[in-house]
Amino acid sequence: MLTTPLFHHYALSPRTWDEMYDDEKVRFQYRNVFDFLQRIPADELSKKEELAKKLFMSQGITFTVYSSGEGIEKIFPFDIIPRIITASEWNFIEKGIKQRLRALNLFLKDVYHHQFILKDGIVPVELVYSCPHYLREMQGINIPHDIYVHIAGIDLIRDHDGTFYVLEDNLRTPSGVSYMIENREITKRIFPDLIPQNFVRPVTQYPNILYKNLLALSPRQISSPTVVVLTPGIYNSAYFEHATLARLMGIELVEGRDLVVENHIVYMKTTSGLQQVDVIYRRVDDEYLDPLVFEPSSVLGVSGLLSAYRKGNVAIVNSIGNGVADDKATYVYVPEMIRYYLNEEPILKNVPTYQLSNVEEREHVLKNINQMVVKKTNESGGYGMLMGHAASDEEIAAYQKQIIKNPRQFIAQPIISLSNAPCYINGKVQPRRVDLRPFALCGPTGIEIVAGGLTRVALKEGSLVVNSSQGGGSKDTWVLAK
Amino acid sequence: MLSRVADSLYWMARYMERTDSILRMLKINYASSQDNSEDFSWQPVLRIFGHLEQAEAAELEPNGRKIIQYMVLDRENPNSVFTMIRKARENARGVQDNITTELWRCLNEFYHVVHEERLTYLLQHEDPITVLDALIKECMLYFGVSDNTMFRGEGLCFMNVGKYMERAIQTSDILDVKLSNLAYDLDKPADTTYWKYLLMSISGYSLYLKRYRSGFEARNIIDQVLFNVDFPRSVLYSLNQLQRYFKRLQSDQNTEGFSKVDFMIGKLRSKLQYSDVQSVSQTGLHHYLNSIGTDISSIGTTLNHYYFAYS
To answer: In chain B, whose CA is at the least distance from the CA of A54?
Structure first.
């Protein structure tokens, strides 16, 4: 194998699924791209990488890092070689996510209403009430179509035999979808004609589906309801995404200070007076949404928003209090939820997870901590994690102390190696770990998943952490039509 | 349209117009300093556009390159091109859903241009005019893109209101810079090269040659720059455009605000329309030019009160 110098450094890792190679052979879905890459000279690829960077920069697909008062524009690292998913893999993923999301929506409805699942002892009561994202304020509120999760970004990883596992359910304000769209646009520019030759399914329809769903939620039955995107503002690292989504849907991008609630109705302040707002796609976290109910010092939210929501005068997407369902400790029970609510066997597997509040499981984890990754249940973005195989003895000891102090806050999972995908790094094609976040949209007419997603990649050699805050990048993600 | 959005568009346009004016003003002054360094002084430029103590300004004086560098790249100077492009882009970034992608990219690229390290070197060691011309070209690109791609709606109206208000202020300021060098004495024989550069830099040279047949004379230049309605940088032209775009904002929702601002614009426009060089030089040129600035800033305050106040 490995005939051109470009691939000479591609070393297959032991006990790891490789997205491109099946042992020595190139998998059929990658063959076209593999041949194509072999035909272009290496420095040509570096030029394409440069072009990609320039395109991101000039289009302002950047986030600003503020240091010593001066803003520096950064781009989210992009790897030029696409990640390819076959039609049959996608069918499986799609079915699995739809099933999971149906159950999770039913769970949220249940938790915030009759709580059958708690009464039947499937999910422990104390687990729900000890979750900081469970919001008592949402109890008993009826929301349009009983949809709590309108947008989900469920993270998937692949074990050494290629099996897909759900790593976490992001049901609050999942981000990254603009990169699914923009990465594709960049690929079109740097590899002209390659996409149609490979029969890649498009992703451009995402904003249209989202907009259709948002419109359908309007409490007022009028011909053109006012739908807005609520952003924390230009200093937020995902601001580019908020602006892009608003632009692609043709709706207003608002900040908390643009809105006001009067008599339980939400208005935006316009040049011709107040205008009623019907649907808010918010990218502000729960705790900052309404200073009257949650964090009182928040200036990102709108006073009285929750009362307007409670009265049914405004729809909020995603709903409030969803964190109780994507808490890392609740995650353990999702397969049970699927059986309980749907009477089906889960299609997508959970990563085996130990709850450290359980004494036996805790002891098992502490004994085998070298093969475990320990996570905080209420943290995300790769923060507060302990990778057992790489941590020093002191780090482990310090972490153990924390665990014993408050075991509910921790879960542990055996280290799953994540699959490798080819990346172009320093002039060579090298394997790096990837995950996959498809974006599912749940509307009154059902669940739709745009064929694609965000592939995050751990650009550091040997790293298993793909989060952008920990040196991760992304790839264009192709789902093949055939 | 959201008040915050209108506010941002208005300021984006003002910053861009000011950037363009300052670049052009620097260009004439630099060119003029090359021709005639004895009479030439940078002090009016620094006084009107800079934010320096008198001593600091005096220190910069003999060094045109340093002054240009201060006006183009200084990060502390609120009127430097660098600062204004940063502010214009920041305003645009907050309203990306209300401007075209082309316009956003244009501003974003301009932002990256003023961040290039090489600019400092070029301003220090190469021909400053080349650098200024390149930056002026970026401005022209912005004006072309905004005019050719922006949808004809409220947003463009607010942009143009900002643009023409700023232009009226800048034009009267640029004129003031020169006249203060002459101590506002129109009969004082001044070197014609300066007037020539002034007209060239604001694209008014060929119009002047065609329209005023008696050579370079301060009175004719003042006439063109203040009152000529065919000259797109004259104050009166700017006020006509300001009125035109503001009138499009009339709606049933904000009648009080509209009539207040409309009244103020109309009054100022009439003041210009029914003045001429002679009457103005009798009342005092400096006073007259100054009052234009004051009137425009009170229009700005009223506009802000009725249209932009949102927090």
So the answer is: B109
